[in-house]
Amino acid sequence: MNPAWRRELRPLLLLLATALAAGYFFNEFSFSFAFACGLYILWQWLQLYRLHHWLQQGQSTQLPSTYGIWGSIFYQTQRLQQRSQKHQQRLQAIINRIQDSTAALQDAVLMVDSHGNLEWWNRAAGEFLGLKAPVDVGQPITNLIRNPLFKGYFDSVNYDEPLSIPSPVNAQLQLQFNITLFGRKDRLILVHDITRLKQLEAMRKDFVANVSHELRTPLTVVSGYIETMDMAADSLPPRWGRMISQMAQQSRRMESLITDLLMLSRLETSHQNQPDSVSIRSMLETIVADARALSGDRHHQLTLKVQSDDQLKGYTDELHSAFSNLIFNAVKYTQDGGEIQVSWSRHPDGVRLCVKDNGPGIDEHHIPRLTERFYRADPSRNNQTGGTGLGLAIVKHVLLRHQAELEIHSTLGQGSEFCCHFPAERCLTDTEPTI
Ligand code: ADP
Fold first, then answer.
1. Could you report the per-residue pLDDT of 212-256, keeping only the tens digit for each?
2. Most CB contacts within 10 A, which of 36, 115, 300, 322?
3. Do 414 and 280 sit in the same domain of this protein?
4. 328 lines ligand 1 (CB under 6 A)
5. Residue with the nearest Cα to atom 11 of ligand 1?
6. Is the Cβ–Cβ distance between 406 and 418 less than 8 Å?
7. Ligand 1 atom closest to the CA of 375, numbered from 1
8. How far, in Å, from the CA of 374 to the mean position of ligand 1?
9. Are residue 251 and residue 308 in the same domain, yes or no?
10. Do 212 and 184 reside in the same domain of the chain?
11. Residue 433 lies in a domain
12. Which residue, judged by its Cα, is nearest atom 13 of ligand 1?
């Protein structure tokens, strides 16, 4: 038996023996037993009172000294309390360290509760967003960062992509917001200062745009002379004729490179004006006619299927450029006599253009990188086609500006399919499908 219980049992047995002896002596067994029980209950009650009183006083008072099982209960309770105190102190120290380190971070950190109210933020958040303690604690975050883009992003609960907006207190400061959900719809917001990055990006865009623009005039002059010489190639020695036709070919390639670079920088820098209402049927008919001309004596079998006479809300030049890049690529990369199907169709979630060919196909590992600038799946093939490596990058940018997505399916040796998915909001007409 546990020693504490043994110590508890001893006085109880003594009390019972005394009650028995007193009962025998006075011949009053029931009275002496009742008296002994009352005494025992009183003692237990007194211990309960002391325990309650000691617990109420907290840790400030001395542990009451007592006997038997109560001594053990007091001692164990005190140990439990001390242990939980130590645990609490350890947790507090960890919280303090985390708060100190996040406070020292150069990035802003904010914690927002499940109702969208601001709970805590670090020093950088105060600077970037102009938050002031304690007035802003408990305020809705969308009232403190008053920007419709931020509100839309915050309420969307889709935080796969970060949001970039200027700081509400300093328009020169470009901030990138990353939101993470945790707990019961609580949010941790990380804000990164991307001003320098944006400046460098703007410098890069300006540089490419300026260089392309500056190169255009001298190149036009040089190509003009080369074209003239090429036209008179018959009167030149054969060796010169070959050289001049190669020069003409290379200068045409440089011209298309510059045109594509200028197109890309226009897509990146220009602001969107009022969109046009683009007739897709006539646009595709024109492009397919051009593609037939491009195919020439390579005799591709080009078919066009327009399922509905939709008008698309978009930018005519950009869409023309994106669609022709896809269709001309199919002509460029598909073997002579190959099949190319161009289709425009409706789907429950929008409309889409697909360009399918039975050409050489693209190895799976190239597909995620195809829309990168100058990325080529097969550089040797490109030398023959004269591609710039910018076509799919242009397609990606145009689609981005139309909230559309590019999907690429391809199997080596069987062919490729490039589909552009436009959201239903972009579709203007509501006519029944006419195949
Ligand atoms: P390029 O000007 O070189 O054609 P793009 O950006 O248009 O550049 O295309 C990138 C690469 O994707 C191409 O170099 C080619 O390897 C591959 N590609 C694009 N379209 C097709 C297609 N229809 N069939 C096979 N490969 C293709």
1. 999 999 999 999 999 888 888 788 888 888 888 889 888 988 999
2. 322
3. yes
4. no
5. 376
6. yes
7. 10
8. 10
9. no
10. no
11. no
12. 376
User: For position 303, what pLDDT does the model report?
Assistant: 96
pTM above 0.90, yes or no: no
Range of the domain at 145: 105-193
Q: Is the CB of 307 under 6 A from ligand 1?
A: no
Q: What is the pLDDT of residues 141-191, one digit of tens each?
A: 999 999 999 999 999 988 999 999 999 999 999 999 999 999 888 999 999
The domain boundary, picked from 135, 167, 193, lies at 193
Q: What are the distances in angstroms from CA 270 to CA 96, 162, 265?
A: 48, 22, 8
Residues 166 and 294 in one domain: no
Q: Whose CA is nearest to atom 20 of ligand 1?
A: 329
SS3 8: helix
Q: 283 and 180 in one domain?
A: no
Q: 125 and 145 in contact (C-beta within 8 Å)?
A: no
User: Is 314 touching ligand 1 by the criterion CB < 6 Å?
Assistant: no
Q: Is 323 in the pocket of ligand 1 (CB under 6 A)?
A: no
Q: Residue 278: which of 270, 287, 267, 269 has the closest Cα? A: 287
C-alpha 230 to ligand 1 mean position (Å): 29
Residue 280 sits in the same domain as residue 367: yes
pLDDT of residue 161: 92
How confident is residue 301, by pLDDT bands cut at 50, 70 and 90? very high
CA neighbor of 109 nearest in space, from 1, 214, 182: 182
Residue 368 sits in a domain whose CATH number is: 3.30.565.10
Based on the structure, what is the number of domains in the chain? 4
Q: Are 244 and 337 in the same domain?
A: no
Residue 56 lies inside a defined structural domain of this protein: yes
The CA distances from residue 106 to 74, 109, 125, 255, 382, in Å, are 50, 9, 9, 46, 46
Whose alpha carbon is nearest atom 17 of ligand 1? 377
